[in-house]
Specification:
Elements: E1 3-7, H1 12-23, E2 27-32, E3 50-54, E4 69-72, H2 79-84, H3 86-107, E5 111-116, H4 143-163, E6 167-172, E7 175-176, H5 187-196, E8 201-204, E9 210-212, E10 214-215, H6 216-228, E11 235-237, E12 242-244, H7 245-255, E13 262-265, H8 280-286, H9 294-306
Parallel strand pairs: 1-2, 1-4, 2-3, 4-5, 5-6, 6-11, 7-10, 8-13
Antiparallel strand pairs: 9-12
Helix pairs in contact: 3-4, 5-7
The structure holds uridine-5'-diphosphate.
């Protein structure tokens, strides 16, 4: 039986990944310090070949025995989380990535780094291909996340080139689905929970900024294909279906049959104006593209929030 380590395994994406690895008949060691993750997200995996380990990967990572795959997903990922926890965000992207790469080296295991479309910052090229270097404000409030992930990519490529580690980098675009935290401040859980409670929908700025939303199952499929591939450079995984935040607010109101009105709030500093993945590389090297329609994915997510 193959063994996989998932850091941040009790978070939104990490928990879906753990579930998928169990389905693939692996033993899963899920590492989390529960800063933004929660054991509830993986409670259904207990009793399978699954271990939950409370460990802060910025201090050390130690795992006994052989390891076949490492997925480094530990990090706050919502803007309000990383604004509240700027130092932890910087530490997990830098020190944490260094420790996890050390583990990969010790175990001679391939490592996949969860990176982000945020490495492109407020992009001047649209849609964003992997060879765009980005437009990031290093000292702005979002810089703590963006620069941590840019450093994480840099050190991962250094381990690949210098130590010949088999590393992969996925640049994750806006992803949504069950197990996002209702209060995590991101647009999908915020709008759904506001609409469900007939509270005003808070659109930031004029709502003309765009995002492209990918359903979590599609993302996980792309991640598995990347891990199993022999491609060592960053790959965008996301859904190119771009829309404005105002359009998205209207869609959520209609899917939830809500009476909510839209209100406008101040746009957060450095909020990217546009974001859309160019997925031609993923299509070419992974034969991957998203399969889930936005409406279908949102309905599953709305159902999940009904039970919360
Ligand atoms: N947003 C919004 N209202 C909210 C939460 C977010 O209008 O209650 C906007 C936010 O300003 C951004 C977009 O929705 O333009 C996506 O925000 P999110 O925090 O989900 O992630 P980001 O893509 O900015 O990392």
């Amino acid at each position: 039986m193959k063994r996989a380590v998932v850091t941040g395994g009790a978070g939104f994406l990490g928990s879906h990944l753990c579930e998928r690895l169990i389905e693939e008949n692996m033993e899963v060691l899920c590492i989390d310090n529960f800063l933004t993750g929660h054991p509830d997200n993986v409670a259904h995996l207990f009793g399978k070949n699954f271990k939950l380990i409370n460990m802060d990967v910025t201090n050390y990572v130690h795992v006994k025995g052989p390891v076949d795959f490492i997925f480094h997903f530990a990090s706050p990922a919502s803007p309000i989380d990383y604004l509240k926890m700027p130092i932890q965000t910087l530490k997990v992207g830098s020190l944490g990535t260094h420790k996890v790469l050390g583990l990969a080296k010790e175990k001679s295991a391939p490592l996949l780094l969860a990176s982000t479309s945020e490495v492109y910052g407020d992009p001047l090229i649209h849609p964003q291909p992997e060879d765009y270097w980005g437009n990031v404000n290093p000292i702005g409030p979002r810089g703590v996340y963006d620069e941590a992930k840019r450093f994480a990519e840099a050190i991962t490529m250094a381990y690949h080139r210098y130590h010949k580690l088999d590393t992969k980098i996925v640049r994750i675009f806006n992803t949504f689905g069950p197990r996002m935290r209702k209060e995590d401040g991101r647009v999908v859980p915020s709008f759904i929970s506001q609409a469900k409670n007939n509270k005003p929908i808070t659109v930031f700025g004029d709502g003309n900024q765009t995002r492209s939303f990918c359903y979590v199952d599609d993302l996980i499929e792309g991640i598995m294909r990347l891990m199993y591939s022999d491609y060592n450079y960053p790959v965008n995984i996301g859904n190119p279906n771009e829309m404005s935040i105002l359009e998205f607010a209207r869609l959520i109101i209609s899917l939830t049959n809500s009476d909510s009105k839209i209100i406008f709030k101040e746009l957060p500093e450095d909020d990217p104006k546009v974001r859309q993945p160019d997925i031609s590389l993923a299509q070419k090297v992974l034969d991957w593209e998203p399969q889930t329609l936005l409406k279908e994915g949102l309905e599953k997510t709305i159902d999940y929030f009904k039970g919360t």
